[in-house]
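input
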Amino acid sequence: MELIQIDGVFKSFGLPSEQREVVALDDVSAQIRKGEFFSIIGPSGCGKTTLLHMIAGFTSASKGAVYYKGKPILRPDATRTVVFQEYGLFPWMTVRENIEFGLKAKKIDARQRADLAQRYLQIADLDGFGDRYPREISGGMKQRVGIARALAPDPDVVLMDEPFGALDSLTRDLMQEEILNIWSQTKDKTFVLITHNIDEAIFLSDRVLVMTARPGRVKAIVPIDLPRPRHPDLRTRDDRFRQYRDQLSHLLRSEAQAVDGAEKKRHQN
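output
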């Protein structure tokens, strides 16, 4: 069942200083199913984050529309939460208080908030760290707090914008495994991930949307037919994983070359 419908989306931004308009997205259409892990990859500047912000309700399309359960998305609401790359934690709040933040906004009473916060501390493998402040925990733990905070209000959709981009390679791999573990424990939640990392997209996803260079269009949507639960060895020992890596790399390579060509032409002019 399609939970999110992206229907012919076009988005442009005016640049008054240059007296011109930049087209970020051009005729983008896709469907995201309930309960799936859906990733979006593409060259820098292709409109991935703009598209995620439309799903979140932070911005609207210039033409076309994005629908949630058949209704146009007009503004943010509690059915869709966002995990940002920069963690976005409140430094004056403890880990537990950060997780409870969205619950307070929903006017959930203190006892239930405490119970839910404890549940997500355990799900995110943060039990025993609830009274720490963000400055007292590692980058990987901060990201888990961000994910727990996004999940605690019980959204239908969790949107993630390069959430592991600031982490080192080993921590990033561990966080990918952690997010799959969290996803498996939160039944029927839909995850939408923006990433530049092909291996990350393959390891996590049911399907991967590949976007063209700006203006962003849908180049391909690739189903990832790998068994779940996914073992870390998939990344290095599974022939199908390598085939998906080759396929997605090939799809992206020409787009990256197009970006380089456009940059060189712009500098020549």
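quick obs: The chain has two domains: 1-79+157-246, 89-154.
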